[in-house]
Amino acid sequence: MFARISTYKPAPDSTGAPSDDTVNRVLQLPGCLGIYYLLGKDNKSLSITLWEDAEALAGSERAANTIRSETSAEQHMQILGVEEFEVLIRQLQV
Questions:
Q1: CA–CA dist 45, 79 (Å, integer)
Q2: Is 86 exposed, middle or buried (0-12, 13-18, 19+ CB in 10 A)?
Q3: Beta-carbon count within 10 A of 26 CB
Q4: pLDDT by residue (tens digit) across 4-21?
Q5: C-alpha distance across the termini of the chain, in Å
Q6: What's the CA gap between 84 and 40, in Å, rounded?
Q7: Is the C or the N end of the chain the one with fewer CB within 10 Å?
Q8: Contact at 8 Å (CB) between 64 and 29?
Q9: Is the Cβ–Cβ distance between 85 and 2 less than 8 Å?
């Protein structure tokens, strides 16, 4: 599994939350396993998208860039960075 982590700085007038449309667009990309969106106390936010494999991660790059740019403009957020990682351990306690 692989992850793409995008870091944002929402404007003061922005909630920083993605729309349902944005979330659905990401989840419909081939190989997408899920999305997390986090808002920190310092008004910085992160989106974490999870991908089946390196091919799905690479194949989603163009669409993800488009979605990220459009959403950032709509939500008045500055994109601070985008990084990709291999997920070495995954475990959720339910």
A1: 10
A2: exposed
A3: 22
A4: 999 999 888 887 788 899
A5: 20
A6: 20
A7: C
A8: yes
A9: yes
